[in-house]
Amino acid sequence: MKRKKGFRLKHLLILLFIFWVGKSLISQQIAIKNAEKIILQEKQEIEKLEREIRELSEEIEEKDSLNFVEKVAREELKMVKPREIMYIDKNKEKKPFVNSRKQ
Length: 103
Description:
The chain is an all-alpha fold. The chain has one domain (about 1-80). Helices cover about 75% and strands about 0% of the residues.
């Protein structure tokens, strides 16, 4: 009888150990998958920010150019070059849709 109890106890302990190892492995795999997902999200965020940095750098370079300064001066400040004559069509401002109608 004693031998049967020892045999059962031994099997029970082995079974519990196997269960504990399995549970540990599964929880580690879940943690690894979550960490990989976070790493992927962070890499995507880094790529997005690097793209934004490139775009902003290009925009800064563009705004430092003389062409951009000239464009802003002409369009927003209504400036003209020396000896340049700017013609304004008053009729176009008053009736912008007159020429677009079909007759």
